[in-house]
């Protein structure tokens, strides 16, 4: 099939590349000239394991091209995906300006019947808005499909190639058939392609993210309770996760969920409900628990240093919102580092992939020499009073604890990801403060 994907970010680039990889001809479009130039020079603007080789392979085979020219992309394609950002507005609702701008462009450049597929995460009713916008500019036939994306950053290719399910919202049987054919190569193990009405498809995406965010806030509350009652959340997590009705996935406690999706999507579904006169009480609680959890380590750190962080130097391992990505959108590390600096601490931060993004996110604090961005993990420990773990990158899982002890002024680790065994830390005399587990003291 001939496909255009408008928006070449985390979703658009991965989706476009995977569609090309199964043999389709794909044109990826973006209005960011630098991004397209990079891609045309063989450079990948994001860090996503496996993506670089896959892009290269498909570009070489001339199945995948990158352009800023939306007109020719629309003209040459039967199916056009919209995969642009839908960031939160101040009131929490999803900002649809990019989606509707693309709809307008598609409408203007239609040269025959097309299928327009909304892959961006958008509130219920957006397909109607896209349809109205396209219709203003064309007399050709088209259908608007809702096809939300469920991939996770860091595992995006695998998720896209082997999805648990594909959700397609359309009331047109012919369009449904085309979408079934398009996704058939990805569901060969028997995973379902769920064809449903457009509104249900749009809501499915928010309901899925909201459910996952709920699991995380739930286990974080249980973790905080564990600390109060002297229980170990790692035991409780396993104890409940072995019940098949609960399951072992997505119940890892930590410093709260971050990323470009859960925070904004929880806000947006709350906002949608409000527009219909409804309060989503569970999700409001999920959001407030998460906001609190993002700085949960601050109390532990302040407590340990007798409420005086002035002049203290703290090393931070991990800045991205999760491992295997360079993405720092809504990363808990941002709130924690800013809070620590406010208390008078200096930060020496290391991340294997996110330092480039950290440069502009912490530009002000780097300038004032409150934050230092360090390329190597152990160099971040130089002159530091303690170590904080914010992201569970693999390379932080089994570090040289004796070197850590030797380098830190105080042998203390505050671990937002529960990477180490408190008993082992006690044995080697490292003061260790995990989440929801007994500390080593
Ligand atoms: P992103 O910010 O990484 O990429 C969006 C791209 O769209 C950018 O490159 C931007 O330049 C481009 N763009 C914006 N306006 C444009 C226009 N008018 N014409 C052409 N290009 C334009 O965003 P993302 O993370 O890929 O997310 C895209 C959508 O997918 C969002 O709605 C998001 O909620 C959803 N989603 C994201 C993920 C994820 O893991 N990141 C997963 C599932 C769904
Ligand atoms: C999430 C969903 O998992 C995807 O299915 C969805 O497509 C995507 O949002 C989206 O809509 O954009 P992503 O944000 O990339 O994907 O990453 P996750 O692995 O879900 O992690 C999100 C946050 O939750 C991270 O900060 C992570 O550290 C945290 N998390 C995750 C926990 O604290 N505990 C867990 O058990 C799992």
TrEMBL record:
One of its GO terms (molecular function) is NAD binding. Pathway: Nucleotide-sugar biosynthesis; UDP-alpha-D-glucuronate biosynthesis; UDP-alpha-D-glucuronate from UDP-alpha-D-glucose: step 1/1. Keywords: NAD, Oxidoreductase. The active site is at residue 261. Signal peptide: none annotated. One of its GO terms (biological process) is UDP-glucuronate biosynthetic process. It catalyses: UDP-alpha-D-glucose + 2 NAD(+) + H2O = UDP-alpha-D-glucuronate + 2 NADH + 3 H(+). It comes from the Bacteria. InterPro entries: 6-PGluconate_DH-like_C_sf (IPR008927), NAD(P)-bd_dom_sf (IPR036291), UDP-Glc/GDP-Man (IPR017476), UDP-Glc/GDP-Man_DH_C (IPR014027), UDP-Glc/GDP-Man_DH_C_sf (IPR036220), UDP-Glc/GDP-Man_DH_dimer (IPR014026), UDP-Glc/GDP-Man_DH_N (IPR001732), UDPglc_DH_bac (IPR028357). NAD(+) binds at residues 30, 35, 86, 121, 153, 264, 329. Residues 315-422 form the UDP-glucose/GDP-mannose dehydrogenase C-terminal domain. Substrate binds at residues 150-153, 205, 250-254, 258, 322. Its EC number is 1.1.1.22. Belongs to the UDP-glucose/GDP-mannose dehydrogenase family. Catalyzes the conversion of UDP-glucose into UDP-glucuronate, one of the precursors of teichuronic acid. This is UDP-glucose 6-dehydrogenase. It comes from Caldithrix abyssi DSM 13497.
């Amino acid at each position: 099939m001939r496909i255009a994907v408008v928006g070449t970010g985390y979703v658009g680039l991965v989706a476009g590349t995977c569609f090309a990889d199964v043999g389709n001809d794909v044109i990826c479009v973006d209005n960011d000239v630098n991004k397209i130039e990079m891609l045309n020079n063989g450079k990948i603007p994001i860090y996503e394991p496996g993506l670089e080789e896959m892009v290269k392979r498909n570009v070489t085979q001339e199945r995948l091209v990158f352009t800023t020219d939306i007109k020719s992309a629309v003209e040459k394609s039967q199916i056009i995906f919209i995969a642009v950002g839908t960031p939160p507005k101040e009131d929490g609702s999803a900002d649809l300006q990019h989606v509707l701008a693309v709809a307008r462009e598609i409408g203007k450049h239609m040269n025959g019947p097309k299928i327009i597929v909304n892959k961006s995460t958008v509130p219920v009713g957006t397909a109607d808005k896209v349809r109205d916008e396209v219709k203003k500019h064309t007399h050709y036939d088209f259908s608007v499909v809702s096809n939300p994306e469920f991939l996770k950053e860091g595992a995006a290719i695998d998720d896209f190639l082997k999805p648990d399910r594909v959700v397609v919202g359309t009331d047109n049987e012919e369009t449904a058939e085309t979408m079934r054919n398009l996704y058939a190569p990805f569901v060969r193990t028997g995973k379902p392609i769920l064809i449903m009405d457009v509104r249900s498809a749009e809501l499915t995406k928010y309901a899925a993210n909201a459910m996952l965010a709920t699991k995380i806030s739930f286990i974080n509350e249980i973790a905080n309770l564990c600390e109060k009652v002297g229980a170990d959340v790692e035991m409780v997590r396993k104890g409940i996760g072995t019940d098949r009705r609960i399951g072992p996935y997505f119940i890892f406690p930590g410093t709260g969920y971050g990323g470009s999706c859960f925070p904004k999507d929880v806000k947006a579904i709350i906002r949608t409900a409000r527009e219909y006169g409804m309060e989503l009480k569970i999700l409001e609680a999920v959001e407030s628990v998460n906001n609190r959890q993002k700085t949960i380590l601050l109390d532990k750190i302040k407590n340990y240093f007798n409420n005086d962080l002035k002049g203290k130097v703290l090393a931070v391992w991990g800045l991205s919102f999760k491992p295997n990505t360079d993405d720092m959108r809504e990363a808990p590390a941002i709130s924690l580092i800013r809070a620590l600096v406010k208390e008078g601490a200096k930060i020496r931060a290391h991340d294997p992939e996110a330092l480039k993004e950290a440069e502009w996110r912490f530009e002000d604090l780097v300038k004032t020499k409150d934050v230092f961005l360090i390329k190597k993990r152990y160099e971040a420990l130089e002159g530091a009073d303690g170590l904080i773990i914010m992201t569970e990158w693999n390379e932080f899982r089994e570090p040289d604890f004796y070197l850590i002890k030797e380098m830190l002024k105080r042998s203390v680790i505050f671990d937002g990801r529960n990477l180490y065994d408190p008993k082992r830390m006690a044995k080697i005399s490292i003061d260790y403060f995990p989440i929801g587990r007994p500390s080593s003291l």
